[in-house]
Amino acid sequence: MSDSTIDRRAFVRATAAGLAATTLPATASAFGAPASARAPEILIRSAVRPLVIADASGIQFKNGGTECAVERAFRLITEGKDVLDALIAGVNIPELDPEETGIGYGALPNADGVVQLDASCMHGPKRRAGAVAAIEGVRTPSLVAQAVMDQTDHHLLAGKGAQEFARALGFTIEADLNTERSRRLWLEWRRRMDPDHWLDPSKRQIREKDKHEKDPGEAELSSAMAQRDFARRAVDAGWSMVQDGLIPEGSFWGTINCNGINAKGDICGVTTTSGLAWKIPGRVGDSPILGAGLYVDNDVGAAGSTGRGEANLYNLCAYLIVESMRRGMHPKDAGMEALKRIRTNTIETRLLNARGLPNFNIRFFALDKKGQHAGVSMYSAGEKTFALCTEKGAESPMLEPLLPGNPTD
What we know:
Elements: H1 3-23, E1 51-54, H2 57-60, H3 69-78, H4 83-96, E2 117-123, E3 128-135, H5 141-151, E4 156-158, H6 159-168, H7 180-193, H8 216-227, H9 230-243, H10 249-253, E5 256-261, E6 267-273, E7 294-297, E8 301-307, H11 309-315, H12 317-326, H13 331-345, E9 362-368, E10 373-379, E11 387-390, E12 393-395, E13 400-403
């Protein structure tokens, strides 16, 4: 065999290997070729489209600026910023917006008139998480949650300890996060919950026939309210304000959940809230609890929630949704699975409507590693849309409901 024949065969083998290398993924090597034989990175395109998904407050509020939360987060992600940094920069918009009365500064306070905030964040690629609960005086609890993640060995700090941690890191601690509006709404709630002691000056009148006689109807109402437990009366008074149009449903339950994925498939999430309006002081809902108000697995996806936190806490729905996606479910089907779990486990009469179904709403926002996403809700009532931002810009798709009608039907 001549040397020229050997050279020709070597040339053919080398050419074939080179062509194969340009068609294989960057993680493979042709015919056992070393990593140096991989196709140039510039020829490899990601199959993931960057996107940001959030509840409706992610698009409704701009705090006087030009961007909403999902727009800012998406812009920063596509500019190459860390996904979690981008998402937190996004939710800082509603946290700082006094017109958003369910999140951060100016949010509806607890039963004592004190604004207590919760937040959590999870970084998929780094497998890290951080959260704060019942923190007072800090407008952006999402940033404190991120500091817990980055600067401590812990996942959750609460109450006074969380505030002192924030103070030590240089966060501004304010004496009161109420605005004139949130304080006025709190006073209205107090009057509705306890009308015998918290009076509306504009409605105080003296009856002509008998200044001391009490209307029988008022007496019966007062007696009935006095016999009911505090938590139920608090919710009833707050919900009546929603029904009367004084506060939006989103503010009553509070919360923004915001999840995102970049072109590399890195997934992160953040949830931040003032929690249930007029809550018992110290009450902590689902938002700062990993697996409930937020869960992220970088190999699978992310999920978060708004709505009745106690229902989500009992069922750890964010974790359930991510695990369902791990088993191959589409984010929509995984979200519906969580809603069905809540429906099955809601058995107390006080939590059921006339149809025997949950008398509350709850919503989930999920995305998977492929960039598939969904927003689902127990009912198509109140907030019927969610926030989404892609290369097409910000939009408000409809939530997919599990049940027909309204929670109170």
